[in-house]
Records
---
Amino acid sequence: MTTDALTIRGLHKRFRSLRVITGLDLTVAQGERHVIFGPNGAGKTTLFNVISGQIRQEQGTIQLFGEPLDRVPVFRRARRGVVRTQQVSSVFRELTLRENLELALQAQTAHSTAFLPRRGEGTLSETVNEVLEEWSWGGRGDTVVGTLAYGEQRRVELATALLQKPRLLLLDEPMAGLTEQESDRIAETIAALDRSISVLLIEHHVSIALQIADRVSVMHQGTMVASGTPEQISDDELVREVYLGTSAGHEGRN
Amino acid sequence: MTRRRLAVVGTALAVAAAASAPLWLGGYELGVLNLALVMGLLAISTNIVLGFGGLVTLGQGAFFGLGAYTAGLLSTYADVRGFAAVAIAVAVGTVAAGLVGLVVLRSQGLYFMMLTIAIAQLLYAVAFRWREVSGGPEGLVGVYFGQPGDLFDRPEWFYALTLVCLVVCTVIAWRLRHSPFGRSLIGTRENAGKMAALGFDVRGIQLRAFVAAGAIAALAGALFAYYNAFLDPSVFGIDMSALALIMVLLGGSGTIAGPIIGAVILTFLQSSLTSVSSAWLLILGIVYVLVVIVAPRGIVGLFTRGRS
């Protein structure tokens, strides 16, 4: 039996009296594309914050490939392969495209914060050039990222996330605020990801998400109310009631 | 002329002018320039924390003062002088910055700034009260780098020593800025959350910048004590830290030349104004307001478009 990529048991998180996550269980198998649906305020982003370590849960355990993640700070989780993108794109807006990619690559090297130049700085800039070409940013390396269109900034964030060699990739509404064309482009990138990467995806864009997903969980009031294959979930009455029924009409606009 | 060539030519001219200054400047002016270079070191120190790291500090006076008092105490009590004394002062500043950094870097923004002020004020109080050792408010008199009659007892040689220190520290700051470490430090300034998400130990990066800055501030403090041949608790004062901060902002925060330019301008302004009026602090305030309005990115920022 292979170990699951992510195992969450009995998770609780509250902000003062507001219970945001209430006894949540979740399992993401290795290489699985797992989509989380849920209405606004269901606690999806909070769940991501807890998994990536930005906030700490009151109760419950989180395991990454069988190893506990509790009390591990954000940057160490990142080094272990827990990589996330934010709901609102998180990039170095004042730095150039090249510098954004350099920092992401630099984080992977052993001497990531060395004072003296190391061997490997040369290959770093070569790798950056390759990445620029790969994402069709050739010739735009010196563009300040904050001046790029929002859709491009999302791609920058996704590119830096993938450079981190993720084992578990947490994508928080990667298509929010994008045009249909841009969304399709992101969806293609996600669909083409290597199966060594397990993906947990929050997405309101139901039709696209269902195409990508191997498994779907529906979150409501801080816990998973249903989990299954895309087919099972689309047919589930309860799910329609809490989520699909209320948002199916908005789908096109999201 | 390209920006790069402008920078190279400007640097060459500035170094040549500074190196030949003893030949064409009068004794008084050379003294003021010497003080400006000492303050330039403190400004470089502040710039590493503020300009590169994005951490607003009003407490570099703590390490400046520790360097000054280390040099002063060694000179007056133990008769330890010269390069050994400077090395000890720098070591004290480095260790102190490491310990202080561990505490103050746990907080951010305004709280970080308040803590840096608090640490400097604490040391000020110790220097003020601990009369038996520090000399209290009267301070320490007779702080010398060399023995009387030595080479560095002569103003032009002490000036040369200060200039060498400034050049070395500028190269260090430049090297630091363009190293992998510097890139990661800029990253923490721009988006600390993203840096952590990328797997960088943000606090570790900030701590190392803080330590490097502490070492340079202590060097500045030791030279300041020797320059005056005297020191009192004001070296720890908030006005010392604030002056360094305004020098950085005036010259150009986050740039290499900016802190030195700011230090030279403000030191000469201060020395020419205090002799004619007591309104120096008022003038300093006006300078600060003007910088914020006219040149928010400092003097260097006026010549470089877009970004640092």
Note: The CA atoms of residues 2 and 8 of chain B lie 10 Å apart.
---
Amino acid sequence: MKKVLSLVLALIMVLSMASFAAADQGASVVVGLAGDPGNIGPFQGMGLGRIGILFTTYEMLMVKDGSEFRGCLMKELTQVDDLTYDVELYDYIVDAAGNKLTASDIKFCFETAKADGNLPKLSSVESVEVMSDYVARFHFTALAAGDLESLLMECPIVTQAAYEASADKMATDPVTTSPYQVVDYKTGSTIVYKRNENYWQKDELLPTTSKHNVDEITFKIIPDPVQMVNALKAKEIDISAAIDGSYISDFMGVEGFDVTQIPDNTTKYLIFNYDSIPSAAERQAIAYAVDVEDIIAFAFDGIGYHAKTVGNNKYPDFVEAWNDEEYYEYDDEKAQALFAEAGVTAGKTYRLIYNVADDNTRIATTIQAALGDYGINVTLIPYDNALFGTYKYDDKKSGEWDIMLDEGGSSNLLTNVWKLTLDARDQTYDKTVGHVADEKLQSLIEAAINDNSAENMDAFHQYLKEQCYEYGLVSKVNNLAHTTVVTKAATCFRGQILPGACEY
Amino acid sequence: MAMLSVKNLTVEYTSEGEVIHAVNNVSFDLEKGQTIGLVGETGAGKTSIARAILRILPEPPARVPNGEIFFEGKDLLKIREEDMQKIRGKEISMIFQDPMTALNPIMRVGEQIAEVIHLHEHCTKAESVEEAKKMLEMVGIPGERYYEYPHQFSGGMKQRVVIAMALACSPTLLLADEPTTALDVTIQAQVLDMINELKQKLNTSMIMITHDLGIVAEVCDTVAVVYAGEIMEYGTKEQIFHNPQYPYTIGLFGSLPDLKSDVDRLSPIEGLPPNPADLPKGCAFHPRCPYASEECEKEHIELKDIGGGHLCRCCRLREIAALKAQEV
Amino acid sequence: MIRYIGKRLLWMIPVMLGIAILIFSIMYICPGDPASSLLGPSASAVELAAKREEMGLNDPYIVRLGRYLYQTFIKFDLGTSYKFGTSVFAGLMERMQYTLVIALLCMALQVFVGTPLGIMAATHHNGVWDRVSMFLALVGVSIPAFWLALMLVLIFAVNLGWLPTSGVSNGLASFILPCIANSFAGIASQARHTRSSMLEVIRSDYIVTAKAKGLSRRTVLFKHALPNALIPIITIVGNGMGMMLGGTVIIENVFAIPGVGRYMTDAINSRDYPVVMGGVLILGLIFSLIMLLVDIVYAFVDPRIKAQYEGRKGKK
């Protein structure tokens, strides 16, 4: 028995030695990814796993570098009229298979994406016309402020030749113009990219998203948050932006690791159901009753910011002055007064629905505890991802909830965050997601969408705040930690790691 | 010196804190070539005696606190397990009561016989197969059926296989534990005849455990009547059958239905056998004995020789004889 | 025997059909749909509705069922995953490799560690060894697999660095911790079942016969008792194998193993219908085949069963 045991142990050690033959550190990096990207074809819908690899896999006409939009494949943008723009490409773009990228490829990509229907924003693009080899003319159906750049970034670009050559529409083996090409994709497990030595763009002209400072990138999918932490501790991954807040202190100030905090695109907010809470005083009371600092402490380990509106404060159309305004900070007296005014007494029950993914359960229980102080019962009703997505917009479900915990973000403008839930035109029943049919609200949001001047923004913001139809809670912050293999981490505007742009 | 000499054998079972006195100070001898019948009711301790001889009692509940079993001069209770294994199946073997469960259901019948041959006789596998087939023929089963499984045989044939297995190595002593109880009467006769035949051919000594006096009459030379773990009466077949002395023995014979007379009811022995965990004081049979008196429960009665090697454990024989004379 | 196998194989066809209809109906009744998983959280209601229409999710039950059955049983096409865009069958086969490795290794551990433990417990019934191994078995069944998994990772991967924390990139070493964590409960249950089966068998008459023949304790145990005791264990092993091939979700999640379990649960969560239905069908098929195999093995091990299959030719 002892002999067998020692043999087994010896075997384990040998195997682990053999398999741990580390690759040359400087030439490769391993990134921990929490979400599974699934289908990595160009025209698929956005998802949590996909955003982690999007900019490494594809290039677009325009990209957002920090807070500014700039061209990536596009050399120049010319306006023809309100709804028509010409896009001129660099004339030396080549994909990894050697195909030259021309304007007809642009047309192909946008049209295929529209037909597939996974990128609904593209409905604003009416058509793409090929003007010459490297100039494509975009005809838009409508363009709200800030839409143009977003739309030009929305669709990943590949050559038609490469796309048609792929057996599965590039679901597992995209061939792109990006400096990194997929060499191996074990679905559900790892994606390995190698640098393309014949990448087309000159170093001086590279946007951050197209930088290529490392030879090889491996994305490792690790769904369990504790295991993500373990993997980083064991140096099996070099960097991850999905380190759970409660463990981030394990890496702060520790030899061999660095920590950065990156503001996330998304904000958590509450949507009140107008059908069951028609009284503004009641909604305000709830807002005052909930201490957002408690939520930040409990659900995010103290890392995050109290939102000042329904959206975070990094958007260009966010009005700076709002940072100094009051925004329903916890106030027990006001809460009690307003509950009394609304006729809410102890024993009242609210039903809180939310998506059971990630930290929502903690937020929900904090809210439940907070309202419990007033003798109010909160029934928690979590749904899984798919169900929540359906019920959120389901008019028939309106009778089943009073408060919804939701989150949202946008790639460019605060108005687009508002649009997700507050523009009645986007819902199927002519009310906001919170079942509000308020003409004034609608006209204000339409004004802000058309022209996001500070006045229009402020007008909508103040009215929304006053009515408290929705209440912003926490602007998320991501914890990014890395080993010293990475000397400086780089992230995209969504807070995802850009391994090619990191410094080593 | 007798081939087998059991002296003061005691076997106890411990179950849930209680001690069950299965066998109490049993002694008897057996000469070579002779058959002794151990007669008694179920639960009298007969099987335990046989298993004690082979040392196949289930050791955790069972214990042999004292006794000696001399077989060809050696005390079987004291030799090492390895030596006992050499004796089992070869010098002493056993036929079991229930043929339906006595054979391994997933092993070929012939193999089970060949196994014991190969183990004890120094021969090759092939030779043991041949021998096994011969044994099967000897018990009246075609040799080709070596390759069949127990479920393909009827009860009687299974028992014959068991007998073949027991006699395969020509044992000196055969322990037959109610070998025909589970079989119907016609088959019973066949099996008994076979046992007798083989016994004579191989000059095997036998201990025949049974509750059937008819079998005793056919097969045995000497008889020991066992009650509550003790031998109450012992003698030659003639002595016991023609002159039973112990009241229990008399009762046994009396309970046999008489084909010639016309009776409405059977005449069993009154009462039930005693609880082996709580045996009566004095004579174990006295609660049921029609001739019992105070004397019988005072102290334990010893076996007495009442003439020509006929032993009896009753203390009131003279009184009983007198009572009987009066009745007549 | 061949006829028996043939009959069983034929029976699998209606079983497969039944499974297909059942799983389709379940997924149909289940609320939620793939649209929001495909379009992401920032899609609006209008966009989601359009997507649903495009995917044919608004068609009536019979139409969708008919379409599905035709595609699966006439064209033998399990479809393409909504989430991955790849063939469901190819995806399942790719994932099955990992699940198979884990299932086989765990099964081996279960059989080769659990069975001896059970035998020793039975042969030392009520003795020290019996109590110790039954206590260990109790612990094994009670410990949650994910807790054990994380503990093992903490000790062996993070602190000692001998083994990887997760993933399948390190060859055989990647499977050591997952298999140990996963098989604990299996070893425990195997030990307990073996023990009780052995205890039953050891009390049998034919064991006494074997002893009476003068066979050594060893021979009695391994040649007569064990084969009989293992017969009921065969079903347990077969069952266990079948279930493990369905993927052990918790272990696959914790150790980031791209196995069938994760594939299926992710599919269920995102309402990836082709994967769910194709997966259940394939797993059902595999399970049926394993059960058939178990029954065949039974026949070889226990001649009484074989006689049953062949229809009572035995008794003479």
Note: The first helix of chain C runs from residue 2 to 29.
